[in-house]
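example protein:
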Amino acid sequence: MRERIAWSIILIWAAAAVIGPTVASGANVVDLDHILSWPDASGWLGYDDLGRPLGARLLVGARYSFLVAFWVVTVSALIGTTIGIMSAYVGGRLDHLIVRIIDIFLAFPGILLAIALAGLMGPGIDNVVFALSVVGWVGFARLARVQTLSLKHRDHVQAAVSLGSRSARIMFRHLLPLLISPLIIEATFAIAGVVIAEAGLSFLGLGIQPPTPSWGSMIRDGTRYMLVSPHMVLVPGLTLMLVVLAINLLGDRLGDRLNVRRGGC
């Protein structure tokens, strides 16, 4: 039952990302007659401090949340997995260097490093994707490295080495397919982390810029009116919570089904 609800929430999020901007064309329309209005028949989730409908803005914000999560996790997975497999398979000084680099990244909280990068490069969705990708590849690299260390001594891999297969072929033909399951689980939890991080950067003014709506910026705008219009915070806040909770729940369920444990260096 809980899994079905989680899937439903994620599918609604994905659908909102696809069709949201089309059906929510009035997300930035200012209506002075509805400033801070509570939910009613004309606005099913209420209005913000400029009279803009929160429902429409929530749908548009879902698109940017989804796009950032998709691109950050895709880029991080490609870079991190490649680095992790190469590090473990080649070994030696390369592996030692990469492990030290991973340790350096892990010495700093990822969100603080992302905030610093976003602050240096300036706000904008492209910079948010870049900043979160810079810190996001580490988790995939750690996982790919640990898994490769345990897999590269298997018989079929050693047989490929004996037959003279090139290292690149061994890594991406014989080792990578065995890493798919744990990488999927890692990607699931990474999506949830990116959604939270994007909202946090937007809350700080380092993410998606007004008038384009973002769940984080909607929460920030609503904090000034908590006493008179708490729905301005509750609507995007509860939406963010439900999406992240659904993603984490599915990640746990997938981990149980695939019998995968999340590991580290």
